[in-house]
From TrEMBL:
Catalytic EC class: hydrolase
Family designation: Belongs to the glycosyl hydrolase 1 family.
This protein's record includes keyword Hydrolase: yes
Catalytic residues of the enzyme: E335
EC number: 3.2.1.21
Amino-acid biosynthesis keyword on record: no
Membrane-crossing segments per the record: none
Keyword annotations from UniProtKB, A to Z: Glycosidase, Hydrolase
Descriptive protein name: beta-glucosidase
């Protein structure tokens, strides 16, 4: 097998603001963490203090040999109240971007990674059609200030996650998406408490994670299109896309119809929004197998990750091949990874996943980057700090970074632009 990857292939790791920065107090998720009956295992608190330590962290990624850093700009920081845009927060992210460029790291910026400003909930959140315009305005403000520093932009992260959550609620045999713990997520009282913390009522409280009906999905699509339009108008050189969470959907005899229906929900219903994008961000962690009665539960002897889903690095190639049947724009793997304390299994996971990516490229599929999730062991939403996705560990009592062997492995791959010397 040919071992080289395309020239200028994007090798890197990813984070999300709320999961690493700490003290995102103006966001809806912060309110949820502190609500009565909250399903969150931990409070995010200071997280891994990346808001303060970003310079050292980016320098560390560069020293490891990585070339791309995907991170998010936090809407709740930039616009803590409706119509007020914080100059100090804009300057903070300006410096983050400058540090990336200073150390030869290509920044890939996600404009929305699950967390919304609290004030948005008072307006109906992601059930209000005007949210699309408000989101686009936030993107406009950021890009007028910072656009020339951002070569790649993702408007939104995993726009299909609410649909996956809805499927989970309908059938509890489904494996939860990354960061979601099923039983506690369904507890009713915590959303009412969170709504009060955001200054509204439960009837008006509609977070991004709840946007699974046709109307709210259309609002999300509209937000993406309008954000893309303002970004390209302000800085035409920025390449713009979105990301979808896509398990490798497979079927056994009799399950073909279930699998096709699921793939349409997860992927094909978003094709109209993807049309016009510069690239597509695919995020894969495992597979789902469907039989005549729906998704097939895992056997007891199947290896699973800390999140409880199947250890299956080959799922990445499977998902890429399915996506490539319907789109003709470049594909960037914006997330792929594993939650485990066993770093040898992480290295094996990365190796096997990249062997699959290489086979896709050899077959002519235009894949232009691999971004591992995640850079650090961080706050994994309702699971708190119990999941270990990072190639870099963190002692949160001291915030000391602990480089794992998988970080060196990924850095060697980035430096050699392939698996042959790693």
């Amino acid at each position: 097998m040919k071992q080289g990857f395309p020239k200028d292939f994007l090798w890197g790791t990813a984070t999300a603001a709320h999961q690493v920065e700490g003290n995102n107090i103006n966001s809806d998720v912060w309110a949820e963490e502190y609500s009565k009956g909250s399903p969150y295992a931990d409070k995010s608190g200071d997280a891994v203090d990346h808001y303060r330590l970003y310079r050292e962290d980016i320098q560390l990624l560069a020293r490891l040999g990585l070339k791309t850093y995907r991170f998010s700009i936090e809407w709740a920081r930039i616009e803590p109240e409706a119509g007020y845009y914080s100059k100090s927060e804009i300057e903070h992210y300006r410096d983050v971007l400058k540090v990336c460029h200073e150390y030869g790291i290509t920044p890939m910026v996600t404009m929305f990674h699950f967390t919304s400003p609290r004030w948005l909930m008072r307006l109906g959140g992601w059930s209000n059609p005007s949210t699309a315009d408000r989101f686009a305005k936030y993107c406009e403000v950021v890009f007028k200030e910072l656009g020339e520093l951002i070569p790649y932009a993702l408007t939104m992260n995993e726009v299909n996650l609410p649909v996956m959550l809805h499927e989970l609620f309908v059938n509890f045999n489904f494996i939860p998406p990354v960061g979601i713990e099923a039983k506690s997520w369904t507890a009713p009282e915590w959303r009412e408490s969170a709504a009060r913390a955001c200054g509204t009522t439960l009837d008006n409280y509609f977070t991004f994670h709840m946007a699974s009906d046709k109307a709210s999905i259309n609002i999300i699509k509209d937000a993406h299109r309008k954000a893309r339009e303002v970004i390209k108008r302000i800085n035409p050189n920025t390449k713009v896309g979105l990301t979808l969470a896509l398990p490798d959907v497979q079927s056994v005899e009799g399950g073909e119809e279930h699998a096709e229906k699921t793939w349409n929900k997860y992927f094909k219903q978003y094709l109209d929004a993807i049309k016009g994008d510069d690239f597509f961000g695919i995020q894969n962690y495992t597979r789902e197998i469907y039989g005549p009665n729906g998704q097939i539960p895992l056997d007891d002897d199947v290896e699973v990750t800390e999140c409880g889903y199947e250890y299956y690095p080959e799922g990445l190639a499977g998902a890429i091949r399915k996506v490539a049947m319907d789109i003709d724009i470049p594909i960037i793997i914006t997330e792929n990874g594993i939650a485990t304390k066993n770093d040898e299994r992480r290295i094996e996971y990365i190796k096997r996943a990249l062997e699959g990516v290489q086979s896709c490229i050899n077959d002519g599929i235009n894949v232009q980057g691999y971004i591992y999730w995640s850079a650090f062991d961080n706050f994994e939403w309702t699971f708190g700090y119990n999941m270990h996705f990072g190639v870099i560990g963190v002692d949160r009592s001291t915030q000391q970074r602990i480089v794992k062997e998988s970080a060196h492995f990924l850095g060697q791959i980035a430096q050699s632009n392939g698996l042959n010397k790693a």
